[in-house]
Amino acid sequence: MDLTLFYFPGACSRVTMTALEAAGVAYHDRLVNIRTDEQKSADYRRVNPKGKVPALAVDGRIMTENAAILVFLDRLFPAAGLLPHSDDPVAEIAPLSDLLWCSSTLHPAMRQIRAPDKFTTGDPAAVKADGMGKFAAEATRIAAGVDGRWWYGERWSIVDIYLFWLCNVAEKGGFPLHDYPAIIDHAARVRALPPLIRALDRERAGADRAGIEGTIY
Ligand SMILES: N[C@@H](CCC(=O)N[C@@H](CS)C(=O)NCC(=O)O)C(=O)O
After folding, report:
1. Choice from 37, 53, 104, 162 to test ligand 1 binding pocket (greatest atom count within 8 A of CB)
2. Are 114 and 200 part of one and the same domain?
3. Which residue in 17, 50, 82, 114 has the fewest CB atoms around it within 10 Å?
4. Coiled coil located at which positions (predicted)?
5. Residue 93 belongs to a domain with what CATH number?
């Protein structure tokens, strides 16, 4: 199977790249420079008409949306243990629910903090304050879920990586992450995970080749 990940260093494609690294599969990577709006170019829109990263080409067919790609990779590479599984249908769907929470609730709230000007032609400070409030409510939930444990208990999952990425970028946008020591401790544990380390190295190599500086690591 031929896999190509369309990504940008520091973007949410970091979660997908970490999943590919955890799977131990060979894949191509293709940097899409969202700083220069390459994601909106005609060439990239032919790849992903939504104009976003990540996108994953699977034997030339395109898959979009982080949550969907992560579920796909989990099914394709079960030995990687990206998500937990259960015979109980309600428990089985919980990881999908968490991935969608990350992409549809946490990601927009984080983005309001990090890039409030993208949401309004008016006062970005009001958008940012609103994002801070929304993210704080969710951070309380995250902190409780990762306090001395991984999100699903004893073993890390790709949801831990997603939560780490979201909190890390929110912090860079000014969110007071140090008010949540359990999240800080979780971040230190995530940073020591070999698949994340490999993904960060691969992102760094791509950023260096493209001359991109100031990426959030
Ligand atoms: N719903 C999409 C959102 C993807 C997304 O917002 N990606 C960002 C990078 S983190 C992006 O491509 N931004 C460029 C833009 O919005 O123009 C997903 O979860 O995969």
Report:
1. 53
2. no
3. 50
4. none
5. 1.20.1050.10
Supply 22's token pair: 């955890």
Which conformational region is residue 197 in: left (phi greater than 0), alpha (psi within -120 to 50 degrees), or beta?
alpha
Statement to judge: residues 94 and 189 lie in one domain? yes
Q: Would you call the peptide bond into 54 cis, given omega within 30 degrees of 0 as the criterion?
A: yes
Contacts of 39 (CB under 8 A, 6+ apart): 8, 32, 48, 51, 52, 53
- pLDDT tens across the length of the chain (217 residues): 999 999 999 999 999 999 999 999 999 999 999 999 999 999 999 999 999 999 999 999 999 999 999 999 999 999 999 999 999 999 999 999 999 999 999 999 999 999 999 999 999 999 999 999 999 999 999 999 999 999 999 999 999 999 999 999 999 999 999 999 999 999 999 999 999 999 999 999 999 999 999 898 8
**Measuring from atom 16 of ligand 1, which residue has the nearest CA?**
52
* CA 88–ligand 1 middle distance (angstroms): 32
H or E stretch including 28?
strand 28-31
Q: Which helix (H) or strand (E) holds 5?
A: strand 3-7
Strand partners, 30: 6
Query: Would you say residue 153 lies in a domain?
Result: yes
